Structures are given as structure tokens and as C-alpha cells.
Amino acid sequence: MRFEDLPTPCFVVDVALIEKNLKILNGVMQRTGAKIVLAQKAFSMTALYPLIGEYLSGTTASGLYEARLGHEEMGKETHVFAPAYREEEFDEILSICDHIIFNSFSQLEKYKDRALRSGRKVGLRINPECSTQVGHEIYDPCSPGSRFGVKREDFRPDLLDGVSGLHFHTLCQQNSDDLETTLRAVEEKFGTWLPQMEWINFGGGHHITRDDYDIPTLEACIKRMQNRYGLEVYLEPGEAVALNAGYLIASVLDLHKNGIGIAILDTSATCHMPDVLEMPYRPPLLDSGLPGEKPFTYRLTGQTCLTGDVVGDYSFDRPLVCGDRVVFGDMAIYSMVKTNTFNGMALPAIALQDKDGDCRIVREFGYEDFKYRLA
């Protein structure tokens, strides 16, 4: 099947572009000795886990189900962090996870001994109180009142026995200069305890595979922790694994006008690309321009009853007609994992594009997926 023959709506992930990203990440690992694991919260397409496992060290999870997914489908290192663990799930987490990271000293006190008896590596998330994000406060773990990590003023050195590593995650789609800034804050606030640790986890949010990403600065940060404190270094990017490697194909169902041309698509920002509304951001669209840049401007919208189900305004070289296909870019990350069936919207099919350009559908969804989600 060729790209133009796929049904709509459909997510398409390009295997060659995924592998290109993986080679960049693996290059960092080879040059520095650091370990990079996939943050499944951004991308968890298990059909590609065998390929990802050839290049990366394993997976990291935000809870039991993601941990199971990484353990069962990739079978390499499995890390987990949660703001709080559920008692009824913790034994299973112990059975499948190598690194268990706690968000607070109270969680550490509750579960540490069990984790150590199971032979697991125990870590603690710290809050370096160093905000480097601009315009994405919803994604800033160092913002005032954040629930993530232990601040210096609340640190309990008397409870560190058995803790082998520290974890911080403060970045979101950022370059390595922000990591460098954060690392200085980590050393300033928690450097006293770094020599007694075995490892440090830089968390995620590193846009390592972006064209303008400064890899030498990242590698200098890694080597600084290795050389100064003798630490093994982990990174857990999610977006970088599948950045710019996927598409969402949609079709124009109807055309409408209300001060601007309106195209109603068979996809939905609300259901199929919710980060468009949550971030918010305007996703790239192939063969289009900014509003007014090309002769014909349209507002691309979804099918749901939510008035704000709007993807964005785009311009085209010719008028749109019903049946036209539009292709959104960078749709492998977060969009796929956040889809929902609000209003009874069907989930998009999922396809892989092989290196020779051939496509194959790996999953299709129907009424039963909607019906039994809520029972």
C-alpha cells in the first residue's frame, strides 16, 4: 500500500526517520557511555520496540501499565517514576522494574526497604527550583507549588541510606543550554550528596534529534557528572525518539464559511491531537502556508461538538474541495498516546511506512473500541 492509498484519518510513522533519530541518540551513548531510555509517555508504539531496543538501553514508565509495556515488549532496562505509588500495584512494579524513583521522602520511607530487598535500584526525584521554560508553565516541574520532587529545604540526608541515585526532570522540548543551567542548580543545591550516589538521571525534555540541538554541550554535561562525581548518567527523552517522524492524514468532509473559509475534517484536534489545544500550538501541515501567505486561507476544524475543536488556520495554493487529503507533520509524539473517543469519534488507524516507501496498517479501531472503553 502506498501513502496516498491509506484510509483517513490515519497516523503514519516513518521507520527510516525513527531509525535516523535512534542513530543520533545511540551516538551520544557510544561517545559518552551514558544510557538513554525511551520515555513511553511520548511514544509507545510497540511495533517499533524491537527496533528501538537495538539502539537504546530500555524504557521508562510513569506507572504500572507503562512499566509492563516496556518490560514485556522491549525487555531491557525498565525504569519507573510516579508522584505516588498504589499499594496494590507496588509488588508487581517490584517484579518488573530495575530502577524505582520516588517523588518524596514519605514515599521513600514507605517503600524503600521492599525495593531494596527485591534488588532494585532506588532513586529520589529532586526539585532544583530552576525554571528554564518560557511559555509552557503547565509543563514546568519547578514552578511554584509543583508537586514534583524534593526541594533543598525539605531534604532529609538521614533517609538516604539505600538511595543510589538522584533524578530531576525540568525540561520540555529544550536545548542543552537549559540542561547546563539546570545542572549548575542541581550541583549548587544537592552537590553535597552527589559523591555518595551511583547514578544520576537527567530526565526527559531533551530535543536531542532536533536540527539545532547542541549535542557537544549535552555530552559535556554528561562527562562532567561522570568525571566529577563518578556517576552513571541516564537520560529519558520521549519526543527525541520520534521527533518529526510521523504524520496524521485527514480528509476534507465539508466546506463552510463564517468570515473565513472553514474546512471540516474527518479528524479532530480534541480527540486526535489534543496537545494542539493543551500546549497550545499550530501543527505543521504539508504544502500549506501561514494565513494569507497563499491565495486561499481556511480554518481546519474537527467533527466534534466542541466549538474550539480547531486545528488552526492555513493557506493553500488552490481552493480546497471535499475529498482533499491534508497531511499534518510531527504527529508521532504525544498525539498518538493521547487520543480519545469523545463524541464517539473513531480513533485513527495506525500505519508504518517502510524504508522503501511501502505502508502497512498495523492497527485499525472501530465501534467496539469506543463501546467497551466505558462499558
From TrEMBL:
<dbReference type="InterPro" id="IPR022643">
    <property type="entry name" value="De-COase2_C"/>
</dbReference>
<dbReference type="InterPro" id="IPR029066">
    <property type="entry name" value="PLP-binding_barrel"/>
</dbReference>
<keyword id="KW-0210">Decarboxylase</keyword>
<keyword id="KW-0663">Pyridoxal phosphate</keyword>
<keyword id="KW-0456">Lyase</keyword>
<protein>
    <submittedName>
        <fullName>Carboxynorspermidine decarboxylase</fullName>
        <ecNumber>4.1.1.96</ecNumber>
    </submittedName>
</protein>
<dbReference type="InterPro" id="IPR005730">
    <property type="entry name" value="Nsp_de-COase"/>
</dbReference>
<dbReference type="InterPro" id="IPR009006">
    <property type="entry name" value="Ala_racemase/Decarboxylase_C"/>
</dbReference>
<dbReference type="Pfam" id="PF00278">
    <property type="entry name" value="Orn_DAP_Arg_deC"/>
</dbReference>
<feature type="domain" description="Orn/DAP/Arg decarboxylase 2 C-terminal">
    <location>
        <begin position="62"/>
        <end position="331"/>
    </location>
</feature>
<dbReference type="GO" id="GO:0016829">
    <property type="term" value="F:lyase activity"/>
</dbReference>
<keyword id="KW-0745">Spermidine biosynthesis</keyword>
